[in-house]
Amino acid sequence: MDPGVAFSDPCGVQVWRLSEPALVATARAVCQRITDLEALRVRLVVDLQARGTVKTLGAGSTASWLSGVTRMAPGAATLIVNLGTALAEWPGTAAAVDSGAISVAHAKVIVGFFTHLPDGVPPEALPECETYLLQAAATENPVELARRAAALRHLLEPAEHSLPDAENTALNELFAATTLGGRGMVKADLDAETMEMLHTALSGLSQPKPAADGTRDTRPAALRRAEAFTELLRRYLNSGHSPVEGYERPHLSLLIRDEDLAATGEDNENDTTPDQAPTANTTPHPGTDHPSNDRPAADRPTLTARR
Questions:
Q1: Residue 274: burial class (beta carbons within 10 Å; 0-12, 13-18, 19+)
Q2: Fewer CB within 10 Å, N side or C side of the chain?
Q3: Which of 293, 272, 271 is nearest to 282 (CA)?
Q4: What three-state secondary structure class fits 186?
């Protein structure tokens, strides 16, 4: 089968009809074509950024425009724009991406290597580092290339300041972004000590908690860890030791629509019998204790409701 047919009408390809050699050849051709198109997308986005075209379209930034027209995650769109901007400083890597010799993922590793270089590396050594990583990228996948880049970075560090990556806090990164629907995504790259502290803090809070009748805890491990992380944040804020920001204590602002508030009031009236008045439930979550509940009310975070 001519791969060009798959490119022109991918939905019309009857994969089950392909022989094994044709299947292998077509799969490899499609993968290479995807690599080429990803490289072209980076170049197009860079030109859109340079010309300021998206401003005339009413977009606040190139990344927001790209996310809007492609339904791509905002973080992924920002990575594409940032990569295109960074590649302007490394023409050798940019040429390798454009020619299809390396993928966009390889280029991200190489650009990231130069972004986190240790202090004191002579400028004349940078072209040799780029050549070395490009040669490795021709035969290694991005994960293997990242390990090689980390080893090279370690070699370039001065002997008196040399630290393994696992102990180097200067490489730490944490991202917290709001996603669609108001939820959030947290991503981090942390040193070994910080990760150990995180594991230790979450371990006790994320253990399965059987019910009073002995029924096993059916929550998956990921959900238990997420709830433990929430509890960890709540306890820290309740402790009163968090810094004051903008002359205000830590607080949450809860926005409630009028119709939702009215509906809640109607539900409460329907659920309340003449002999039973509604009461506030202030019992902590089972299995947790809140020593900070004994603190004076003035030292606790506040919850502000606005209509």
A1: exposed
A2: C
A3: 293
A4: strand
Instruction: Output b/e per residue, 235-244; b: 16+ Cβ within 10 A.
Output: bebbeeeeee
Q: How far is CA 101 from CA 24, 94, 95, 145, in A?
A: 20, 10, 9, 14
Share of the chain above pLDDT 90, in %: 41
> How many other β-carbons are positioned within 10 Å of the β-carbon of residue 129?
19
Cβ(228)–Cβ(206) under 8 Å? yes
**CA–CA dist 213, 210 (Å, integer):** 8
Structure token digits, residue 233: 């944040």
| Residue 94 backbone dihedrals phi, psi, to 5 degrees | -60, -40
Of the candidates 154, 157, 222, 158, the one whose C-alpha atom is nearest the C-alpha of residue 186 is: 222
Q: Where are the domains of the chain?
A: 3-163, 164-209+218-238, 248-269+287-307
Long-range contacts of 190-196 (CB under 8 A, 24+ apart): 191/165, 191/166, 191/167, 192/166, 192/167, 193/167, 194/169
Neighbours of 27 (CB within 10 A): 14
* Cα torsion through 243, 189, 230, 292, rounded to 10: -40
Region of 214 on the Ramachandran plot (φ > 0 left; ψ -120 to 50 alpha; else beta): left
pLDDT in tens, 88-115: 999 999 999 999 899 999 999 999 999 8
Whole-number percent of the chain with pLDDT over 70 = 81
pLDDT at 3: 67
Q: CA 215, CA 264: separation in Å to the nearest integer?
A: 32
Both structure tokens of 77: 């769109």
